[in-house]
Write a structure and sequence with these properties.
Structural class: mainly alpha
CATH superfamily of the domain at 4-83 and 124-129: Winged helix-like DNA-binding domain superfamily/Winged helix DNA-binding domain
Strand order of the largest sheet: 1-2
Distance between the termini: 33 Å
Strand content: 5-15%
Number of strands: 2
Largest sheet: 2 strands, antiparallel
Order of helices and strands: HHHEEHHH
CATH architecture of the domain at 4-83 and 124-129: Orthogonal Bundle
CATH class of the domain at 4-83 and 124-129: Mainly Alpha
CATH topology of the domain at 4-83 and 124-129: Arc Repressor Mutant, subunit A
Number of helices: 6
Length: 144
């Protein structure tokens, strides 16, 4: 459904939202989210470029969300690293179809639109508030 990169970005956003008063280092985020550190650095760089996370250097530096978790949609996070690919013309290159999608490709594109809408309507904050027996990111960070 979504790429591994998008999954890692969402885990990172949830992690940072879980510690809103603390800047977390790449190492801390990697440990909590179980994302390889080298890969995580690239994900955080993309989230920074999209102004989803803020980075601060120095002794108490690290990453934090650039806006409240309640205002950050899942779609914003996904779009920052690996946006959904829409079908706007015939993937088979059939000239008679052009931008007039056949029923199959129209249905596939409609499904992408529905998924995007669901992700747009859900915030990172919603994930943290959802009543469930399991919390996002199975393990909490120690000594935070």
């Amino acid at each position: 459904m979504i790429s591994q990169t998008a999954e890692y970005a969402l885990r990172s956003a949830v992690c940072l939202a879980s510690y809103p008063q603390t800047a977390l280092t790449t190492g801390q985020i990697a440990k909590i989210t179980k994302v390889p550190g080298s890969y995580l650095s690239k994900v955080l760089q993309a989230l920074g470029k999209a102004r989803i996370v803020h980075s601060q250097r120095g002794l108490h530096g690290g990453f934090s969300l650039a806006k409240p978790a309640e205002e950050l949609s899942l779609l914003e996070v996904i779009n920052a690293v690996d946006p959904f690919q829409h079908i706007d013309s015939c993937p088979l290159g059939l000239k008679q179809h052009g931008h007039n999608l056949c029923p199959l490709h129209k249905r596939l594109n409609d499904s992408i639109n529905m998924i995007e809408k669901a992700y747009q309507e859900s915030s990172i904050g919603d994930l943290l508030k959802e009543p469930t027996l399991s919390k996002p990111l199975c393990e909490e960070a120690q000594n935070m």
